[in-house]
Design a protein that fits this description.
Chain lengths: ~190, ~220
């Protein structure tokens, strides 16, 4: 009965999910610890400062898109098909706007924070990195989420149970990877 | 981790739509449809989410500033950098498991703020066992990856950092989850809407704080 499990039951049920997210965490940790990333961290002031905010908002933006689509499917408001539906395009457009706005916002507050404590910081560089990382994350997260939710739903999977792990796992791994791409691209342009 | 940040807004929205369903059939059809379109308008979604996301980002700058403070230690010890995302992710996972279990038990009437309550003990026991398993594996894995990335930190130290910070985190998860459930219940909030976003964000940030408190002692 739910709520009456022993510690052993809870442990056994939760362990697989925790282990999957552990593997994802180690993977993103490896990217974070890589030589290129460490060089980037040393060269670009503010990178470590914005990292937790960047990762957390990925979860917020795309977790809510997933939750919204899943509710819409359950209520019969949207159909699990890849066609232009106003609600579907609205939800996608809104999450894209949210993702990009927040990415730029994070770059700006990171810059202000650096300046507030008298540290050097380059606003253009931070905004550039966040725009590249935010854009790539948006494209990947939106496509994967829609594919997973629609295909899963048609096969009888409750999207509510899938979104959380998908968003956290992909969000962290690709968030850090795209941050690295952002550093690289901005470094090449500026 | 923070995917539940908007859960409250969404649940609230669908609740009011359902409440509107008791009108006449024709009325319901048109009102419901208008409400649905409005609920799904770009402007509405952006306007509800942006303040929340902005506040969340400012809050996360706290853990960012801790990372920034330890930049030199982190850059010279890749094993510790590897620990960062795992620590944050696991904190959120353990917190959301504990919170959803506690709120379910609250609804079922089996929850009670008493150290002898069997369900409370099972939750706490499971969190400690999960933390012990995960952070034991993480310690070894982070050390291996760290060595592969050119780090010099010994296995003993990485394992010590991982396990000590992981177990402290487990204590924090249990305490904040119980506190959040108690507070939202007493203040008349639905714990399903409030506890997970609050506790996962608190534990995300505290996870980094604890990690570096331990790092500053051990390394």
């Amino acid at each position: 009965m739910p709520g009456h499990d022993t510690a052993r039951d809870v442990y056994r049920q939760a362990l697989p999910v925790i282990l999957v997210s552990l593997v994802a965490g180690l993977f993103s940790g490896t990217i974070l610890g890589s030589e290129t990333m460490r060089a980037g961290i040393s060269e670009v002031p503010g990178l470590l400062l914005l990292l937790p905010a960047f990762l957390a908002t990925r979860g917020g933006v795309y977790g809510s898109l997933g939750a919204r689509l899943s509710t819409g499917l359950h209520q019969g408001l949207i159909e699990p098909r890849f066609r232009l539906d106003r609600r579907l395009t609205n939800a996608i457009l809104a999450s894209f706007i949210n993702g990009m706005t927040v990415s730029v916002f994070i770059a700006v507050i990171t810059f202000l924070w650096l300046r507030l404590f008298g540290n050097p910081g380059n606003l253009l560089e931070l905004v550039g990195i966040m725009v590249v990382a935010g854009l790539l994350s948006a494209v990947l997260m939106i496509s994967v989420l829609i594919a997973v939710i629609f295909v899963g739903y048609r096969r009888g999977l409750d999207p509510d149970n899938v979104i959380g792990p998908v968003v956290t796992t992909l969000g962290d791994v690709f968030g850090i990877l795209f941050l690295l791409v952002g550093i690289y691209v901005v470094g090449a342009v500026l | 981790m923070s995917s539940s940040g908007s859960g409250g807004e969404r649940a609230g929205g669908s609740g009011s739509e359902r409440a509107g369903g008791s009108e006449s059939a024709a009325d319901r059809e048109s009102t419901a449809d208008r409400e649905y379109v409005d609920e799904w308008s770009v402007r509405r979604i952006v306007r509800t989410m942006i303040p929340l996301l902005a506040a969340l980002s400012v809050l996360q700058l706290v853990s960012g500033s801790v990372l920034e403070t330890y930049q030199e230690v982190l850059v010279s010890n890749p094993a510790l950098l590897v620990l960062v995302p795992v620590q944050i992710g696991t904190a959120g996972n353990l917190a959301s498991i504990t919170c959803s279990r506690l709120t379910t038990q609250l609804y079922l009437g089996t929850y009670e703020l008493d150290p002898s309550n069997p369900d409370l003990r099972a939750n706490a026991g499971a969190v400690f066992a999960l933390a012990g398993t995960v952070f034991g594996i993480v310690g070894v894995a982070a050390w291996v990856i760290g060595v592969a990335l050119g780090g010099t930190l010994g296995l003993g130290r990485v394992l010590l950092v991982s396990l000590v910070s992981g177990m402290l985190l487990a204590v924090l998860v249990v305490v904040t989850s119980v506190a959040a459930v108690e507070v939202s219940y007493r203040m008349g909030f639905n714990p399903d809407d409030t506890t997970i976003p609050v506790v996962t964000n608190v534990c995300d940030i505290a996870g980094v704080l604890i990690l570096f408190a331990v790092v500053s002692v051990v390394v």
